[in-house]
Amino acid sequence: MKCRVCRGEAFVKLPAHNAAFCPEHFDAFFLRQIARAIKKYRMLPPGGRVVVALSGGKDSLVTALVLHRLGYQVEGLFVDLGILEGDFSPASRQACEEFCAVHGVPLRVYSLTAEFGRGIPDIARRYPRICALCGVTKRHVMNEYTLAVGADALATGHTLDDMAAALFANLLRWDLHYLAKGLPVLPAEEGFAKKIKPLALQAENEIRAFAALHEIRPVEAVCPYAPEAKFKRYKSVLNELEEKSPGLKRAFYEGYTQQAHRFKEETARPPLVTCAVCGLPATNSPCTFCRIWRDAT
Ligand code: AMP
Ligand code: FES
Ligand code: ZN
Ligand code: ZN
Question: Is the pTM value of this prediction over 0.70?
């Protein structure tokens, strides 16, 4: 197997792109692909400021490294959930700290325990749907923080596999609300920071190769509360299809991004009010975050 560019020994084979690359040309190819997606979907202005939500996993670390290398002003944000079981939060935090130190990326650690004197395990006793509440918590912190620092956008590490699996699941259910919101970019609105997913067109195998190439050391611990990995079944069905028709996953998702405007009218959400505590838009006041963490009633 030879590199498409220099005919040197290939280090990665990408059937979806009908190509193989040596390390150097894969690196350039990967960055170029993401630069193109950022431009196509108007994710960031050149040299713009971006908060990257870092979980310690490879996807968000790769997102930060790529944006940093493309010349954006990157700041990492890690939400420390205070989950000590299996060393989950401490190990995740350490992975983020190590990465940021090596690559010269500033990191903000937002610790629930430091802010509110308790973490996810303390509220897990009271709330059965802890993963959903944890999601609400993380999204609130990321949004509030991005607005507070005035960055151009908030980036998460969602990948093509995540986006295509969610699309597949939402199509099977004809969930029009989510079908309108599966884009790689969600624009800023009053009280909502712009949300971007720079890896939305990058498949798992490419991201894994890029992480290996740059010796990214993601956290290995998994969340003790996590149920089955999200959309796992949908991902494996799509990967089976991809195996037979390389490029199918990307065509499926990219096609959707061109058609998504058709679902726009379905975005109607419950009317929003302003949370009396944090001042952000929410379905109720106080918002769920302020009720849980700030004990607001
Ligand atoms: P997940 O829903 O766990 O697959 O995470 C999706 C994305 O959310 C990740 O790629 C990160 O960008 C972000 N994220 C997840 N957990 C955290 C965390 N504890 N702190 C900051 N960002 C996170
Ligand atoms: Fe939030 Fe597991 S990461 S409950
Ligand atoms: Zn080459
Ligand atoms: Zn609030």
Answer: yes
